[in-house]
Amino acid sequence: MPYIRPMDVHSPKMHWKIVDVVIDGGPGAPAYAIGTWDGERRIGFRWNGTEDAPIGNPQSRGLPTWTMLDKSMHPAVIALVPEEKQGLVSSYLGLPQRIELVVDYHPSGRRTLKEREGSGRYRDLAGDLFGNENPASFYRAVAQLLAERQQAGQHVIFRDTKSD
To answer: What is the mean pLDDT of the chain?
Structure first.
């Protein structure tokens, strides 16, 4: 018997309403889905079964079930979701889309940090992150911003394309 596909797992029915499977690793691998748990939008997780043990894990009374991830894990899971679904998952959960931060170098030696949400346009950030000629103060400001964004649960990608 083939494994039970994640989209066909609806238990525990009293709590979980599945909307979409966002990662399905196949037989014996993890699966993640978005849905509602007691009316709250969440990411569910389970291990798919195999041909020999089709129910997978977790299970209850012989039924395949979902378990909910801690909300603090949502940004980490979004980072694993295929890029074409990341916007859907972020929007569904009320989280900002992937934020990309890129260092821009000026021939004068000044650095500016640029930000882009999702696939939008880049914009310059202000303060010590704009046109800064002091590498130490610039990267301190970058580190502080990265920590704040990640603490807020944002999925942040940072790129620095030039080395001194």
So the answer is: 90
Task: Report whether 130 contacts 124 (CB < 8 A).
Answer: yes
The answer to whether the CB of 46 falls within 8 A of the CB of 27 is no
What integer pLDDT is reported at residue 96 of this predicted model?
Answer: 72
pLDDT at 9: 95
Residue type, 135: P
pLDDT in tens, 73-123: 888 888 888 888 888 898 899 887 778 899 999 999 899 999 987 777 999
CA 73 to chain centre: 8
Angle ∠(108,109,110) on CA atoms, nearest 5: 95
Burial bucket for residue 48 (CB in 10 Å: 0-12, 13-18, 19+): buried
Within 10 angstroms of residue 91's Cβ, the number of other Cβ atoms is 12
Length of the chain: 164
Element (H, E) at 104: strand 99-105
Separation between Cα atoms, residue 114 and residue 123, nearest integer Å: 5
Residue 127 has phi, psi (to 5 degrees) of 70, -140
69 close to 44: Cβ distance less than 8 angstroms: yes
Q: Which amino acid is at 137?
A: S
